[in-house]
Amino acid sequence: MSPRAGRPAPAVSFEDRMATVEFRVADEPHITVDGDTCRGCTTRACVTACPANLFVPMADGGILFNYEQCFECGTCYLICNTAGAITWRYPEGGHGVVFRRS
Fold this sequence. Notes:
alpha+beta
C-alpha cells in the first residue's frame, strides 16, 4: 500500500506546477490555425477551452495562436466546430511538452 494512500495530495500552486514542465519547441508547429476560417466562427470555443490560454481573439475576427507552450492535450482540435480551422498532430520526435516529477 502506498504511503500516500488515503491522504489528499498536497496543494501545489500553478507556478510550482509549471516549474515541472519543459517545452521542447520544434521548428515546425504541430498545430496550425487558419485565421481566415476562424473569422466566421461565432463560438470561439478554442479561446475558452485551451488550458494554456494560447488562443487570442483579434479585432479583425481572426485568432492569434502560439504553439510554443502547448500542453498537446488536443482540446482545441476536439472542441472546434469549424471544419479545417485547426490542424493538429503530435510534435516531431524529441519535441513537445515534457512533464517532470518534482
